[in-house]
Amino acid sequence: MQDDLVGSWRTDPSDLRSLKAYGDVSLRFERNGKLTYTVHLKDKDQIIQLTYRVEGNCLMTDQPSAPREERVEFSIAPDGRLVLHNPPPSAPTFYVRA
After folding, report:
1. How far apart are CA 11 and CA 56, in angstroms?
2. Residue 52, Cβ neighbours under 10 Å: how many?
3. What is the DSSP letter of 87?
4. Torsional class of 56: left (φ above 0), alpha (ψ -120 to 50), beta (otherwise)
5. How far is it, in rounded angstroms, from Cα 23 to Cα 78?
6. Which is deepest, 17, 26, 44, 64, by most CB within 10 Å?
7. Domain 2-97, what fold?
C-alpha cells in the first residue's frame, strides 16, 4: 500500500469541508519514509517535515521535532483519490494527485 501513496497529493478542490477545516494542503510522500505536509496560506506556505510508514491500511506519521506518532486509516478510492478516514466525528479528507 505504501507505493500507492508515493508522490504528491493536494486537497480535492471539491472537498469543501476539508478545505474549511484544514485549509489547502499538499502531501508529498517519498519512498524513503519522508513526508512533506504543506498548508498553502494566502501569503506563504507553512511546511511541516514528517516521517511516515504504512501498516496495513493505516498511515503512521511522526514529526521528529515534536515526536508523537499519529495514526489514521486510509484508502485509495475507485476514482483514484486518497482518502484519510479521520476519527469520528471528523469527516474523511480527500486528496487528488498533484
Report:
1. 23
2. 19
3. P
4. left
5. 24
6. 26
7. Lipocalin (2.40.128)
| CA–CA separation, 92 and 97 (whole Å) | 17
Q: Cell 504543506 belongs to which residue?
A: 38
With H, G, I as helix, E, B as strand and everything else as coil, classify residue 27: strand
One pLDDT digit (tens) per residue for the chain, 98 residues = 678 899 999 999 999 999 999 999 999 999 999 999 999 999 999 999 999 999 999 999 999 888 899 999 999 999 999 999 999 899 999 999 99
24: Cβ contacts below 8 Å, ≥ 6 apart: 10, 11, 39, 40
Q: Read off φ and ψ for residue 92, nearest 5 degrees.
A: -60, 155
Residue with cell string 479521520: 86
Total number of residues shown for the chain: 98
Instruction: Read off the amino acid at residue 20.
Output: K
Domain ranges for the chain, please list them: 2-97
